[in-house]
Design brief:
The protein has about 240 residues and is α+β, with helices and mostly antiparallel strands. The chain has helices at about 15-25, 40-45, 95-110, 130-140, 180-195, 200-215; strands at about 5-10, 55-60, 60-70, 75-85, 115-120, 145-150, 160-170, 220.
């Protein structure tokens, strides 16, 4: 959408009122409470310890979409934490607009691998607010592949993990990504979110599956049924 503007926020001091609107009007309506930290945690990670960068799509002065990325684990690995359009502004090409800018940043920014976590449509039903199969089709158009089943770590001390997820490979700079990158990414993410590296069976199986997935090209989204579900008792 050529009529959209773009603002990049890499510090909580960059347009703090806009950042708050993005959180309240774009991200919070788009993600379940377990999938999004509170405002204080979110704003503390923008440009800070978490190193998050927020890309905001603007229609005039109105924030109507946002993407949040962060380095995670090795410096060469980036996590696309969130990509969303504001309710009422969906199906307008906002996701494609933001992805176009993200891909340009990744091509020129030195990232070896960019991953994203999304709901597995085999585990999460379609609702008015959540359309897992549509989201996968969107990423399929960007040539994303499935690295394996995924579990989002608990983002707050009183929260729970989000299960029934997939980990997608959105971008890689080389055909074969070194196998250690996914393991280091997973450990760093879980330690940052949960305070220590987990020792439960679910985490161990997740690490095993991802180790087996690299350094191949991943599974095409059309072949999702080839990706076994992660059916493990969390044992937490």
């Amino acid at each position: 959408m050529s009529d959209l503007g773009l603002v990049i926020l890499d510090s909580p001091d960059d347009e703090p009122a806009l950042l708050r609107r993005v959180f309240d009007e774009v991200l919070r309506p788009s993600f379940a409470p377990a999938e999004l930290p509170g405002w204080e945690s979110f704003v503390g990670e923008v440009g800070g310890e978490g190193g998050e960068v927020v890309l905001v799509a603007l229609d005039g002065d109105e924030p109507i979409g946002a993407a949040v990325t962060t380095p995670c684990g090795p410096a060469e690995v980036t996590l696309l934490c969130y990509l969303a359009a504001r309710p009422g502004a969906r199906d307008r090409g906002i996701g494609s607009f933001l992805m176009g800018h993200l891909l340009d940043r990744w091509r020129h920014g030195g990232a070896a691998l960019v991953v994203a976590e999304v709901h597995d449509p085999r585990c999460h039903a379609r609702t008015d607010d959540e359309r897992p199969a549509d989201r996968l089709r969107f990423y399929d158009r960007t040539d994303a592949t499935v690295l394996g089943p995924w579990v989002q770590p608990a983002l707050t001390s009183d929260g729970d993990r989000v299960r029934g997820m997939l980990l997608l490979d959105l971008f890689r700079s080389e055909p074969a990504v070194p196998a250690h990158l996914l393991g280091e990414f997973t450990e760093t993410y879980f330690v940052f979110a949960e305070g220590a590296e987990p020792v439960d069976a679910e985490y161990a199986e997740l690490r095993r599956r991802l180790a087996a997935a690299t350094p191949g090209p991943g599974v095409a989204i059309d072949d999702l049924d080839l990706v076994p579900l992660l059916d493990v008792d969390p044992g937490r």
